[in-house]
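Good morning N.,

You mentioned wanting to compare the apo and holo forms, so I went ahead and generated the holo version with protoporphyrin IX containing FE. This is what I fed in:
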Amino acid sequence: MQLATAALLGLVLVGAAVLHFFKVYQRLNDPKAPPGPKLIPYIGRIHDLPIKFMWLKFKEWADMYGCANGFYRTRMLDAEFIIITDEKVAEDLLVKRAKYNSDRPNIQSLFDSKSTNGSMEYLPLMGRNQYWARQRKLTHSYITEATNARYGGVMYHEAKRWMARLIEDPDGFQFSLEDMASKVMCQLTWDDPGLSEYCTKSAWGLLTQMSPAGPITNVLTPLWHLPLFLNPWKRAERKRHDEQQEWWMQRFLETRSKMSSGEMRPCWTRQLLEKTALRTSISGDYEASSVLGMLALVGIFTVAGPLSYWLVTMVHHPEWQEKVQREIDEQCGGRPPTLEDAPRLPVLRACIKETMRWKPNVPTGVAHETEADDVYKGYFIPKGTRLLPLDWAFLRNPVKYPDPDSFRPERWLEPGWPTFQTPLTQFPTIRGMTSFGWGQRQCLGMSLTQDELIVACGALAWCFTLKPKRDPATGETLPVPLDKSNSLLIIKPDPFQMSFEPRSEKRRAEALRLWEESDAEDQRSRREFLEAARARKGMEGEAVPVAAVIPTLSTLQDTGCALGAEKKKEEFMIEISRVSSNASSLS
Ligand code: HEM
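and this is what came out, ligand included:
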């Protein structure tokens, strides 16, 4: 080929590419599309959306493009986003049009995150499918029953343990705080607070894996498709996933085994095996162990987040800390608050709610995905669009929340503020806050969160004055930063130091005594339960009937999980034989 011909061909190709780029640019930035930052072909806005503090950039765009409509559009690679910045729009799209706006987007770095192929593992991430429907129903009923039963006293017990740990090891507060939240969930799920450390680690693994700020494959999604030998992300995820599932299954089988000898106290897993198994549509042990394992996990960092921010807030606002302490001293007769006291503690509830507004721990919100084309306010929203209710924008709305960047609990307590509501025995409540999401996917843990925060924040205020810490070497006050956190989907403040000063020697001694008493009572009740079970067995040779949740054939055919349908099927076959032999040995 002559040089001139080659040059001409090159020029034509470059020209065609430029033309194509220009056409795509025009199509993407169609003036009839919802407003938003200009989109670049193939990458959208991935180049200037930071992974760290993503919600701040989303808010910046909200102020530029979202004011008129309460939403704007953007794009990351091939994923189309509507960022919702106004509560009314969230109500329209996510509640009134929930029927086709309640699916979830795929999370690339998890195998079958939506359970489209039947993995049935992560309820909050599932698409709007049969597994989601039945697991949501079951989870809702278990949490509601536990709430009505005041969690069997678990929260009081764990709050007392936490106070004692804070007295003995105040510098380990970040660990003991998360451990407290984890112990509550492990106790409710498997009646075993000793599982908390592993459970927290496991929750952290999943949280990291599912967050945009986690593995790079969540943002540069094509990398996920590299062959396994070139793909460290997929290999790491397979290991994490398999370990987590195995651990969930072990907990489940252990519970069943203890039940067979009558040695299992009440908990959600026993409840499922004992009662619900006979009338639930949960397909088998694999699904049962997953729904329970996920339930234990989801209540750890969600609750630990606001609790951590409570510490930060109280250190920065000693005037409100004093008000909370005074209220508790006046209303609770010298003891830490219980849930029965809650109606008489509006200042405590206002400070909790304002902490969650001021420092939300899911600031980006959780995306829904549309299942049908739609037109809203004259704009076309195609099927498959991700609808992101930007909680940071809702909670910084200056009309609803005047002086939005300041911590102002009085906005919940005094007439004249737009958010003031009566009766104060009931309001403020965190139930129904935008932070818990919308419509059919709204959070199932609102009451549990509210109750745990009342008990734990109340116990803290009863026992300690929270203060900044002084550097022992220089005597200088150590900073407690307000704006340093990670950027995962559920955030928490970066490590910091602070001081937990018992309010008096008497309070300190009383807190230790309360824990000793509660611990002794817990041990006594566990011992007596075991002794009674063993005596019953010795006397009667009794075997307690335990329902086996046996996977059905249709479930097996359903389980073409991305991990490999064959592997999954093999696991189920092993499980079936194990379950069948367990069941027959009991009958
Ligand atoms: C401050 C604490 C919490 C916050 C801010 C929070 C926030 C959220 C959000 C934003 C969603 C998604 C809602 C949507 O898609 O519209 C969600 C879903 C969910 N939450 Fe929470 N949550 C918290 C605590 C809890 C707790 C303690 C539990 C359980 C013990 C829990 C269980 C769930 C479940 C099961 C879902 C999935 C619902 C579904 O997909 O249908 N959450 N939560």
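Residues 463 and 506 are 10 Å apart (CA to CA).

Happy to go through it together on a call whenever suits you.

Best,
F.
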